[in-house]
Specification:
429 residues; mainly alpha; Na+/H+ antiporter like fold; two-stranded antiparallel sheet; 1% strand; globular
């Protein structure tokens, strides 16, 4: 009962907060996150007025399955952007920009934090510095997608952005795995080629392979049904299946094997949309079904944000350096790589700002990084940066898309329609 009431408050509270955000000209994503903060264990939840809000962080963590499923649908939707015609026109640019700006961001954050270590070794270790540098590469596909959907953004920048965001997380996964392996080696004194090189590549290959099989099977099963509602149900079932399978972990010959949820579901969407001639219509129906799920995802994400990190001056200092140099890395890296690949001036100027949001992927990496000696510092810095980026990032993404001319001025829409007067029923002539 309590969980259902909490979910109800989360959904309704997030939507009510979005009305206020609209008046302030802020994206709905920001409103959902703020609603989560208010319902979280550091605001209303602290009053212990159950089931109003979440009284503990564990209460939020117990609903993690909702966040995982939502991420699966987000990745599935983004995979729909990887259509062959788009890949032919901007695939080379997207890959180049995605890789170069991620590497540039990691390098810049690494340099800044390692310099901070040499200035004052007590503040941060080298292993923590290079781990945070790798985490900096990741972006937040969920927040970006929500802004694009809310404002119906469309144009060359939007199309490239969705491709780059997807590529970004694959590159970020490789960079993090390699950096974390080096960081662990610095602390233990031994370096493992398996951890640094082999395991990240294996994870990407396995994820893409599983996603490709799932995408083909989804298309094959959909052919047996003609009803729109049944096809929608099959699609939902397959996304749930891929989310579940992506959580499987095993070992082969001493190599740890796992899957990336984002890559698996992204690949499923990519394969399906390229081999299915009715995919666009079906994806539109999936988007409608997932709307409340996405609201819950962001509200729960907001509830997870730990406000206690704001009381630690060391975390604030390292976090400020991290935010400044990550922002520089994303903007300068995107600008340079766009100019190098011949992108239009509009894209070159504005793409970097749209890549600033950071959330779930970074938090997942930070959770892994807790195995380091100073893992708690890494996690708290990421928590602080996510708090800033998630509250500010969507608004900056919106402004960049407006400046690029890819968001049109919103017109007032009203979902309310008066009931039409019933037509008289004649049982006889």
């Amino acid at each position: 009962m309590q969980i259902l009431i909490q979910l109800s408050f989360s959904l309704v509270g997030g939507l009510l907060m979005s009305r206020l955000a609209k008046k302030l000209n802020l994206p709905a994503v920001t409103a959902y996150l703020v609603a989560g903060l208010l319902l979280g264990p550091y605001c209303l939840g602290a009053l212990q007025l159950a089931p109003l809000g979440f009284s503990t962080a564990e209460a939020v963590a117990n609903l993690d399955i909702i966040s995982q499923v939502a991420l699966g649908f987000i990745a599935f939707t983004i995979g729909n952007e990887f259509r062959l015609e788009q890949l032919r026109s901007m695939g080379r640019q997207a890959i180049t920009v995605g890789v170069l700006q991620a590497v540039a961001t990691t390098a810049l954050v690494d340099a800044a934090l390692i310099l901070l270590h040499f200035i004052n070794p007590a503040l941060i270790s080298v292993s923590s510095a290079i781990t945070l540098g790798a985490i900096a590469a990741a972006t937040a596909p969920a927040a970006t997608l929500m802004v694009v959907r809310q404002y119906k953004a469309d144009g060359p920048l939007t199309k490239l952005l969705l491709l780059v965001v997807a590529i970004d997380d694959a590159v970020g996964l490789v960079l993090f795995s390699a950096s974390f392996g080096v960081a662990a080696a610095l602390e233990s004194g031994t370096i493992s080629v398996l951890t640094v090189l082999v395991e990240p590549v294996v994870e990407i290959v396995l994820s893409l392979g599983l996603g490709a099989v799932a995408g083909w099977m989804l298309f094959w099963v959909e052919k047996f049904f003609h009803s729109r509602s049944k096809r929608l149900s099959i699609s939902i079932g397959f996304v749930l299946l891929t989310v579940g399978l992506s959580m499987v972990e095993f070992e082969v010959g001493g190599v740890h094997c796992g899957f990336s949820l984002l890559l698996v579901c992204m690949m499923t969407g990519t394969i399906f949309c390229n081999i299915c001639d009715f995919s666009e219509e079906l994806m539109g129906r999936v988007d409608g079904w997932t709307a409340p799920l996405f609201v819950l995802f962001f509200v729960l994400s907001g509830a997870e944000l730990n406000l206690k990190v704001l009381s630690n001056p060391v975390v604030l200092l390292i976090g400020a350096v991290y935010i400044v140099f990550r922002s520089l890395g994303k903007c300068l890296g995107a600008y340079g790589s766009c100019a190098m690949t011949g992108c239009s001036e509009n894209i070159t100027k504005h793409l970097g700002v749209t890549l600033l949001p950071q959330a779930g992927v970074a938090l997942g990496m930070a959770l892994t990084a807790q195995r380091l000696a100073e893992g708690s510092v890494v996690r708290n810095v990421v928590l602080f940066s996510v708090l800033v980026y998630e509250l500010v990032g969507p608004a900056l993404t919106k402004r960049a898309l407006i400046a690029a001319g890819e968001i049109k001025t919103e017109g007032k829409t009203n979902a309310r329609k008066k009931n039409a007067p019933p037509k008289p029923v004649r049982l006889s002539e």
